[in-house]
Amino acid sequence: MYYEAKKETLVMLYRHTLLTAGQLAILLHYKPKTMYNIAVELREKGLLRSVLLPFLKRNHVGYTLTAYGARAAASLAGDETVFRSKGWEDGPVQLEHYYGTNAFFADVIRYSLPREGEGLIEWLDPRAAAERYVQPRKGRKPSALVRPDGFGMYVLPGRGRLAFHLEYDTGTETLWRLKEKMLQYGDLLPVIWPRVEAVHVLFLTRGQNRTRMLMDIWEALAKGSFTRETLPCMWVINEQEWKEQGVGEALWQGSGGQQLRLLDMPLLPPLPDAIPILGRQPREQPPMERK
Fold it and tell me: Across all residues in the chain, what is the average pLDDT?
């Protein structure tokens, strides 16, 4: 089992780039102590490195793979043929962006844990999420116009599924670039999703003024830039409000002054069969932690 936990850790770091021990523990349903022990062992073998997260208090660290570790993880994930080591040689640059994106999904998983039959059944990393939207281009290589920071599918028993794309905005991208992203969501999602009116794009931003500006941009686009009447739902929230109010109570701002909590947003129909929920995988204690 402990051997499998180490393999799972490598694959999760390969997919999500930067994770803390706490985030890994929530995602993989192990104790934080287990994840610390695994990280120490993998670091000693040269498979991962610790990264100081200076924007957090109390000297928090995250973990990311070395080039050697990423190659091993790519093999476990079945990516041997597409793996390129160069991007892993110096470690990630956008630490706040990776941390904030993964913290959002970890918060959602944590919130779901005491709720019977409820939770995330899908969390796609940026590359996997983009691959869903790869479109053919005449005379050119296929490309993904929509590249969310993550995609999630949250099941609510007896009600349906919440499908959402996350855009975590640290303030480094220009409003023009964010407008371009909104255009791409509005153009492509109606082509992909039959019930796009129940598919969501969430912008988690810094600064209340930026939140309002983003919604103004979307409302202007919705009035005059799209050929389809049915569009995905666009929502924005300030990161501080999200942290203070939490998953269950934070109000997201939508078009026309609408305000909704995350799990009150329109849902897709439920699936006929039950799917495993992230954070609830059956586990045994590692041998070193058994009493």
Answer: 91
